[in-house]
Amino acid sequence: MDTMERTILFAVDDDEALPEAMPVVAVYARRWRASVRVLHVAVKDAPNGSARRLVMEVVDRLRGEGIEAEGEVRPLPAGKEAGEVVAEAAAHADLVVTGSHGRSELGVLFHGSVGESAAHRLEAPMLVLRAPFAVPAAVEPLTVLVAVDGSPASDEAAAEAAAVASGFGAGVLVLHVIPLVTVAGVGPVESEQEAQAILRRGMATVEERGVRASGEIAVDRSVAGAIAAAAQRLAADLVVLGSRRPSPLQGLVLGSVAHEVIHQLRRPVLLARPVRAQNQVRPAVAARPSLRIGGS
């Protein structure tokens, strides 16, 4: 995200995530002087106007904190998924936020096939908040972790991480995970030199935006597991992932990696805006010997 953002779409449901998600939305709205559109997708007929009351309670809370906010309830049409409705409502949003424990119809928007369907329609980055948050995750992100794989999607993720970090005065840890294939006779799918070049590229993307960055390489059978472990070890307040999968072994995107990371972590996860075109991949930056390499 960048300082030009002005509209946040906050997709809400009546669940335990909402009280924890609201302060996060408020912090982002204040930082970027953004207005907030509060949306509830009415999956079933809500008795006594409860859906409208839910939305207005959130709107009133945000307005009470000095944030411009408005609310909307959209019914779920027959034959449509809730994710499609959110994606349509987010046509002009700069950031989409959802907070849920994942048990309700809206709560599973960004998990599995429904989430992929919704998110691949979005032009905006998407912040996923699952309750209860891990302690000591901060409302304002002070430590941002971004996972990179050398693809245009991870370039976008590194840029998003730098934009958020710049706005909040945070530092960024750039993480590259070398997938470890356990088939007989096969080990890591990249050389250390290749991995360092990918990592330096991600760090350069962050640093060229004036944000301090450190780098780390992990080797693991599970890319998602390594990302989650690093986030927990470093007490990251925000994890940023890319949003396109360029190959079966790489691509930190909606699909298995992002799905698993979101389910494993009780920390905010930002899915970067999607890469719509097959961008030219720039040459990787030369590796430096000061990078940390470790397992997770």
Description:
The chain has two domains: 7-129, Rossmann fold (3-Layer(aba) Sandwich), CATH 3.40.50; 143-295, 3-Layer(aba) Sandwich (Rossmann fold). Strand 4, helix 4 and strand 5 form a beta-alpha-beta unit. With 296 residues, the chain is an alpha/beta fold. Helix 5 crosses helix 6 (192-207) and helix 7 (223-233) runs parallel beside helix 8. Residues 104-115, 245-254 and 277-296 have low confidence and may be disordered. The protein contains eight helices and eleven strands. The longest helix has 17 residues, at 152-168.
Q: What's the helix and strand layout?
A:
Layout: E1 7-11, H1 18-31, E2 35-42, H2 50-64, E3 69-75, H3 82-89, E4 95-99, H4 112-119, E5 126-129, E6 143-147, H5 152-168, E7 171-179, H6 192-207, E8 213-220, H7 223-233, E9 238-241, H8 256-264, E10 269-271, E11 292-295
Parallel strand pairs: 1-2, 1-4, 2-3, 4-5, 6-7, 6-9, 7-8, 8-11, 9-10
Antiparallel strand pairs: 5-10
